[in-house]
Specification:
Elements lengths: L1 E5 L7 H9 L2 E4 L13 E6 L2 E6 L23 H13 L5 H13 L6 H15 L5 E4 L11 H11 L4 E5 L8 H5 L4 E7 L17 H7 L2 H8 L3 E3 L1
Parallel strand pairs: 1-2, 1-6, 2-5, 6-7
Antiparallel strand pairs: 3-4, 7-8
Helix pairs in contact: 2-3, 3-4, 3-7
């Protein structure tokens, strides 16, 4: 089994789904600390030819509060409606708007008072379903009972419990994990190096690295799955 573990992000970028598609089981790391100013509750859209940062507001959090205990806020007033209108303004003329917007709208409208980990995971699962990705998704908080472990020890424990023979991490994980450490447990460690393809965005200059929302608005699910998701290498 090939396995990966990542924190949940809100409608993350294409590379996140390349990683999900590359493994048999994807573990959502939902019980680690929420990182302020990170990407758990925000991402970029394309609005009037420029990057636009959207955010799901969260309630005041204590230091080191886990993601699954950090809740989406009701304030500022009407933020869901305003965000939905922004997305309509940005993408109403996109070729796959009618297919993608209802999924995004549902996540936004049902997010209040839920843990941001749950909302982000729901956004990921919705995209996985839309793209017909077959990877099994599991929450780290729901089964492993190892939150007393930290960093590499916890990752290896999850791999061992899942009988994984390969652990695949984002390329940034090269600063955290060493292949010899995993090899001692007979686990192969790989890092995914994503290629993010250019695609047409309203005949404007292409802007890369946006939320998967942007990718889906301009490309069919078949094109994303068959052409874009395999565009990576393992190192």
């Amino acid at each position: 089994m090939k396995l990966s573990i990542m924190q949940p992000y809100l409608f993350p970028y294409l590379g996140y789904f390349q990683l999900i598609n590359a493994v048999d089981k994807f573990v959502v790391y939902d019980d680690v600390a929420f990182i302020k100013q990170g990407w758990i509750n925000r991402n970029f859209l394309l609005l009037n030819g420029r990057k636009y940062l959207f955010t799901f507001p969260v309630k005041s959090i204590s230091s080191n509060a886990p993601i699954n205990e950090t809740f989406v806020s009701k304030t500022p007033f009407n933020w869901q409606q305003k965000l939905q209108q922004t997305i309509i303004q940005a993408y109403r003329k996109a070729p796959f708007f009618k297919d993608v917007f209802p999924m995004v709208e549902s996540i936004i409208s049902q997010s209040t008072d839920k843990p941001i980990a749950q909302v982000a995971t729901e956004s990921i699962e919705a995209v996985v379903k839309y793209l017909s990705i077959k990877t099994d998704i599991q929450l780290s908080s729901s089964i492993y009972e190892n939150d007393h472990l930290k960093n590499t020890d916890r990752v290896i424990d999850i791999c061992t419990k899942e009988n994984a023979i390969a652990y695949i991490n984002a390329i940034g994980g090269q600063q955290l994990y060493k292949q010899e450490t995993f090899a001692q447990k007979k686990i192969n460690l790989y890092f995914i190096k994503s290629t993010l393809p250019a695609y047409e965005q309203f005949d404007r200059e292409f802007i890369n690295g946006l939320s998967i929302i942007d990718v889906m608005m301009f490309n069919s699910p078949e094109k994303v799955k068959n052409d874009f998701l395999p565009m990576y290498s393992l190192v």
